[in-house]
Amino acid sequence: MFDKILIANRGEIALRVIRACREMGIRSVAVHSTADSDAMHVRMADEAICIGPPSATDSYLSVPAIISACEITGAQAIHPGYGFLSENAAFVQILEDHDITFIGPTSEHIRIMGDKITAKDTMKALGVPCVPGSDGGVDSLEEALRIGKEVGYPVIVKATAGGGGKGMKVAQTADDMKSAYQTARAEGKSNFGNPDVYIEKYLTTPRHIEIQVFGDGKGKAVHLGERDCSLQRRHQKVLEEAPGPAIDAETRARIGKICADAVANINYIGAGTIEFLYENGDFYFIEMNTRLQVEHPVTEAIFGVDLVREQIRVAEGYPMSFTQDDLEVNGHAIEVRINAERLPNFAPSPGRITQYHAPGGLGVRMDSALYDGYSIPPFYDSLIGKLIVHGRDRPEALARLSRALGELIVDGIHTTVPLFDALLAEPDIQSGNYTIHWLEHWLETHLGEG
Ligand code: ADP
Question: How far is the CA of 436 from the centre of ligand 1 (A)?
């Protein structure tokens, strides 16, 4: 086993990895910016090292700073968490060249899946169903218009390098195409340094269903079912659940096998998520994330596995600790993302936490780096905690979520907790009857968002 792992991240996900390391008897190294000297991950790790000023570009995203931290502390491997450098192929290539183990897939797989056009081509060739649209990139407005006509409106123009909901524009009709095409290109270029775009049919009533896969890098892979992440605001997930309310065991086994076979075929190593839109019983691939997802705990809850531990094991060359036959769905889990944001506009609400109390009890997991007196710095993502509940079935999980939200205290700042209290009162949420557009529509009618 590794003696020491460096965690190139902060916040709740850094704690998540530190906890796995500690249970495995591996020492952990936290890295932090000057704004995070008092952060929980710094306190909880065995060692901590400052890697730069508050700006993420100069700290959590600084490859030289992170590699130096590895050298100084003697860490043999890096866990990237999610976000930051987790899907940066150039970074992983440097680690590969310097014999530092990256706890995640190879730089080649990250590169393939990081470019959505190449990812789609690859998945199509592996037998994964995709959204109808352009064959590869679209280089001119004329071509975009031709494809729009061919596929049928509405269509969505997507930046091949896009992520986090950026670089996607819907064209309802041919009249919108010019602006959608130009805006998606401009966003791709300014946010990701790549103006290339492609076009897909815009599905009007899909659910977002993603399949968790896991590979050993040697041709074996399994799937751990699906998560339904349809509740989104501005293409960002807000609440996730597993199993998906609209997916039955047979459908799960069918799409799960397609995904597991696809990643086994390319000798994929570690955790990955294959994202689909699901409409009228059909799956349409949209992208693959080559890392641990924010919402991985709902999968851990229903399968009773530790995905981070598993990532560390296979990174070191050990076989996976479970086979497909070992993996059985047990009950229902729901996660809500608690952000330091003020409703109704979701404006960032950093500041000092005057009182924090985490909920507890049977089937409740709170992944958060908050503590009494902690000051949330304004420089990073607004996610401050994930509340995950597990019950024997969906109604039990919903009741448990409501009970746990009632116990949670986060004073001193504004959070998105009131949103979840309100959502739990909705019949559609209680029955699991929602698509990817449900929340935007609800926010418009209830909070006047538009
Ligand atoms: P990102 O990398 O920015 O997360 P994705 O390709 O994963 O982008 O898409 C994010 C979300 O955007 C999806 O969950 C879905 O809500 C919406 N979306 C993407 N492609 C389509 C499509 N073809 N039709 C309808 N909605 C889409």
Answer: 9
Same-domain check for residues 167 and 187: yes
Model confidence over 46-97: pLDDT tens digits? 999 999 999 999 999 999 999 999 999 999 999 999 999 999 999 999 999 9
The reply to whether 219 falls in a domain is yes
What is the number of the ligand 1 atom nearest to the C-alpha of 284? Answer: 23
Give the domain extent around 325. Answer: 207-446
Task: Render pLDDT for 170-217 as a digit per residue (tens, 0 to 9).
Answer: 999 999 999 999 999 999 999 999 999 999 999 999 999 999 999 999
What residue ranges line ligand 1, CB within 6 angstroms? 131, 156, 162-165, 168, 200, 202-203, 206, 208, 232, 235, 275, 277, 286-287, 436
CA-CA-CA-CA dihedral for 361, 364, 367, 373, to nearest 10? -40
C-alpha of residue 286 to centroid of ligand 1, in Å:
7
Is the Cα torsion angle 32, 34, 40, 43 positive or negative in sign? positive
Query: Does the predicted TM-score (pTM) go above 0.70?
Result: yes
- Nearest by Cα to 219 from 270, 255, 256, 268: 268
Instruction: Indicate the pLDDT class of residue 28, thresholds 50, 70 and 90.
Output: very high
Give the CATH number, domain containing residue 138.
Answer: 3.30.1490.20
101, part of any domain = no
